Amino acid sequence: MRRYRYSEWDGSQDRPDVDAEKLIDELGRNLMSDGDLSQILNRMQQRGVRDGQGRWMPSIQDLIQRLRQRRQSQLDKYDLGSMVDEIRQKLENILKTEREGIQRRLDEAREKANQNADKLSPEEQKSLLKAVEDMAARNLQKLDDLPPDIGGQVKELSDYNFMDEDARRQFQELMDMLKKHAMESYGQQLMQNVRNLDPAALNAMKEMFKALNQMLEQRMRGEEPDFEGFMQQFGGYFGPNPPQNLDELIERLQNQIAQAQSILDSLSPKDREALQDMLRSALDDETQYELAKLAANLDTLFPTDDLRRQYPFAGEESISFSEAMKLMEKLQDMDKLEKQLKDSQYSRSLDDIDEKLLKELLGDEAAADLEKLRDLTRALEAAGYIRRKDGRWELTPRGIRRIGEKALHDIFAQLRKDRIGGHNLKLKGAGGEKLEETRKYEAGDDFDIDLQKTLMNAICRETQAPPLKLNVDDFEIFRREGLTRTAVVIMLDMSLSMFLNGYFDAAKRTAIALDALMRSQYPKDTLHIIGFSRYAREIKIKDLLYVRQGGFEQGTNLQHALSLAGKLLARQRCTNSQVILITDGEPTAHLEGAYAFFEYPPSLRTLQLTLREVRNCTQKGIVINTFMFDDTQFLSNFVDRMAYLNKGRVFFANADNLGKYVLVDYVARKKKILG
């Protein structure tokens, strides 16, 4: 019994499927204008492609956009300056508490002096009260003389003798927080493994920084540091996932420093200076020296300029320094992921994108989208359309056939739309499709007998009773379309103007469609392809898809192309030979020995030598049919002269109807419809 399982809608049910047939069709369409297969595959992954249902699949650009939106939401949420405001507010509370505590001490001293009036002499009372008043006056003066910036205030208060115990406690907590932040700037993980920041803990960390600096200096001198010994002594600072080597440790520390520096860079100049001063004030001079040396050594071995970045925060939500460090780590990861996504455009590979990081930052849906993008090439490879060779993708013979069939289908679809077709036959003979018409059998005919009509002929002729006797005159055979073997050379003008005007795309598509038609309907026919600009060369069908503009090469050497076409057709020994010329300009080059001569406007010698090749083709029975994109007076006159000499035909085409004209003309010739 069949079972059905139902689940809650989670969005994944609407995930577009990868359709290899749709992909190869899109790939073929792009190959007409860009012959770089790997680049096209990469572009499909970068910009997206439609799925089997016509919907756009997610692309690398979509992932980049989502990542940028996620980053912007963080920047729009937080006010980075609030962490300085928090410290400023704590400091104001400390000063307020201290002033109130001083006043309370004065009030208590005066009240105590009055209460003990009978126990103390007036001089003793006055002396005790004066001591408290003098201390209060000195402290109040120090508070009044504090510098206006909070960094300077923290530094001055470090040597201040608080009169109020609560204010002293609050200031100590503030200093511990600043010390923690200062250490976090060089290693957030270090502080996660330090329970308190008492003098012993700070001294131990100072020793760790000294040992680390020694290792870095050894590395810079070309020596091999004792990393294992360092980790045995200080490994507890690095938690359950310690670095495995010095390079990993350097990278971790530099990432942390870059995060802290990004915080400073993202603050206003005033807040940046204040925070830097406070962090420096929280540490003793020796520790500051070791940390400064550490930063310099790390920057020499592992520069972080590309990791530092100024982020434009514009939110209102408060954030602490520790939270800001975690946020900077997240933003740093976003920058790293965005770089990986962007770099995939140039590396033409998605293998270097960190899928785990993508999932962490953008969720499961984004990870699934990345997998779909990787499936593009997998699906094409699994379907047998492409394969990997020498580190690059290439089309398989099956892929080339599919692209040709699609080009042919598109042209025939346009033919049906335009109601072009219905070419009747004038000549009939052996070798073509079988017709419903029949005729009397003649000696030498294929014995494709129509048994029903043959028997009826015998019955009508025979007057005797059965058995029925047959003679030669009774036999009827089916007629067949009169098809002939044809050798074709299609010559594609590859001059610069053909590419710039988009004509070569149409010419390439037409040649590929013609090849598909011949392979499927007329397998005995042969097709050669010649590309020509300054020189002419034969192009195999498997290479034609990869042809694209290769730079500026002056010349339209029709003479060389016709000469090469004549040689290729001569090898076929075929009575029906045809040249299909697709061009947008008159000949401007010819061969002088082994070298091309170019001149524009065309020289008389170029025209004469080209027409000589036309006569040579005519003498060999080669028909030249010309399909031209431009109808300038010069070109029209020249091709008319060619047609006069060769008795071929001339068609004026555009990029949209070229394929129709060429294929209809080819089929018409196959069916012996002339003129």
Task: Please give a structural write-up.
- The structure is a single chain.
- The chain is α/β, with parallel strands linked by helices and 675 residues long.
- Among the domains are: 116 residues, no CATH class; 47 residues, no CATH class; 184 residues, 3-Layer(aba) Sandwich (Rossmann fold).
- Helices cover 57% and strands 9% of the residues.
- The chain contains 25 helices and twelve strands.
- The chain is elongated and about 170 Å long.
- About 3% of the residues have low confidence.
Key traits:
about 675 residues; alpha/beta; Rossmann fold; 6-stranded mixed beta sheet
Low-pLDDT parts are 9-15, 419-432
The name CATH uses for the topology of the domain at 487-670 is Rossmann fold
Q: Indicate the CATH class of the domain at 487-670.
A: Alpha Beta
The coarse silhouette is elongated
- The CATH architecture assignment of the domain at 487-670 turns out to be 3-Layer(aba) Sandwich
Distance between the termini: 68 Å
CATH homologous superfamily name of the domain at 487-670?
von Willebrand factor, type A domain
Provide a count of the helices: 25
Query: What characterizes the major β-sheet?
Result: 6 strands, mixed
Rg result: 44 Å
Residues in helix, %: 55-70%
Average pLDDT across residues?
A: 81
Q: What fraction of the residues are assigned to beta strands by DSSP?
A: 5-15%
Could you give the order of strands across the largest sheet?
Answer: 7-6-5-8-11-12
State the total count of DSSP E strands: 12
Structural class: alpha/beta
